[in-house]
Amino acid sequence: MSSFVKDTITDEQIRYDQEHIWHPYSSMINPPPAYPVVSAKGVRLTLSDGRELIDGMASWWSVIHGYQHPELNAAAHEQIDTMAHVMFGGLTHEPAIELCRTLVEMTAEPLQKVFLADSGSVAVEVAIKMAIQYWHAAGKPQKSKLITIRNGYHGDTFGAMAVCDPVNGMHEIFTQTLPQHYFADRPEIGFSEPWNNQDILSLQALIETHHDHIAALILEPIVQGAGGMRFYSPEYLKRARTLCDQYGLLLIADEIATGFGRTGELFACDHAGITPDILCLGKAITGGYMTLAATLTTSAIAEMISSGGAGCFMHGPTFMGNPLACSIANKSLELLLNSDWKSNIKRIETQLTQNLAPAKSIKGVADVRCLGAIGVIELTEPVNAQRIQKMLVDEGIWVRPFGKLVYIMPPYVIDNDSLDALTLGLVRVVKQYLDQYETD
């Protein structure tokens, strides 16, 4: 068995990776390069060849406190010396109890019951099962369908895939296998734009027609992530909440990406002043140290589910309530809540807005938009991901474009100088790339 060498990755290991290891959304025929990382600290990744990259992705929204945070490291060491894992069936432990206490206290008052899962996709699966099992226990088993909005993304497992955009959601080839649900037109009115009631009419019409068969509306509040990094009006979310109440649907808010301050509010639902019936959380919950997620719901829903024929909620992952993950999550949320996180996110938003604005004048750029600690440059045409990725790495920044989007959501601990280097470097690369694209 080969030994692990901390500060280098050999050419043979890279070849093995390319030949045998599947990376997210990649082909095993002529796979794209995977840049070898040997360490990470603060907001920087160190590659095997010694180059340092400023991380603009927070490892897909999760590393909000940066890498190797001393207090998160200490929490991990302390817990692993006590108990790394124990099954949650019939047992409990302090890290899980205190994590659930924090989640109940930091979310809206009606959300009192917590189900711990081991990934965001599973949290969505749990939410869907909760909604369907609720109506079954309530004597309305016909309410077994879901409704959502186009351009949404909720994960890669089968229940989650079924409520991703059926055309643009990366799962079109599974259409004949997935359960069929209802899809309303996407919201078109931007976050700060004046409201027009036309924007809600598609959702309203589908709910009015099919509400007898719909268990829940599931959506990403305010920010549609992998479906296009689109920021929509809080008024849409308010109207959606009203429609659910009016026609007897549960509202599931998928805040796996947006939760814990990313949009400038603690939760994206706070922009609209609404509370979902079921809330999905993940990604940043452990500061990117461990995979962990949570699904919260109300006492009324939990009690209805528990009074049904099954007498319990029918789900239970092997690593549910993992003590190591829960312990790190407790420290991560403590760090967040004890900081002036709101002012910090505003600082990042101001700098993103200012530094990305020049990209609006670049030929081939369709839009530039920022919200909280999220910055997006949308191009008019899909990018050549492999080409632009190399240019970004050569610039000393780590950004992972997809489709027409070149976007960033940096760790919250990023300092102004590093954020300048990230954003100004990003604009430079986009301009160079588009200039070359025009030439080619």
What does this 3D model show about the protein?
This protein has 440 residues and is α/β, with parallel strands linked by helices. The chain has 13 helices and 16 strands. The strands form 4 sheets. A 7-stranded mixed beta sheet has the order 4-12-11-10-7-5-6, with helices on both faces. α7 packs parallel to α8. The N and C termini lie far apart (47 Å). Its EC number is 2.6.1.62. It is found in: Cytoplasm.
- SSE order: HEEEHHHEHEHEHEEEHEEEHHHEEHEEH
Give a quick account of the main beta sheet: strands, pairing sense, barrel closure.
7 strands, mixed
State the separation between the terminal residues, measured CA to CA: 47 Å
Strand order of the largest sheet: 4-12-11-10-7-5-6
> What level of helicity do the residues show?
25-40%
> What's the gyration radius in Å?
22 Å
**Percent strand:** 15-25%
Q: Which shape, going by the Cα principal axes? A: globular
The residue ranges in which pLDDT falls below 50 over 5 or more consecutive positions are: 1-5
Number of strands: 16
Average pLDDT level: 95
State the helix count. Answer: 13
Q: Give the helix/strand class.
A: alpha/beta
GO molecular function: adenosylmethionine-8-amino-7-oxononanoate transaminase activity; pyridoxal phosphate binding
GO biological process, one term: biotin biosynthetic process
Organism: Neptunomonas phycophila
Keywords: Aminotransferase, Biotin biosynthesis, Cytoplasm, Pyridoxal phosphate, S-adenosyl-L-methionine, Transferase
What brief labels describe this structure?
single chain, 440 residues, alpha/beta, 7-stranded mixed β-sheet, 4-stranded mixed β-sheet, disordered N terminus, BioA, adenosylmethionine-8-amino-7-oxononanoate transaminase activity, Adenosylmethionine-8-amino-7-oxononanoate aminotransferase
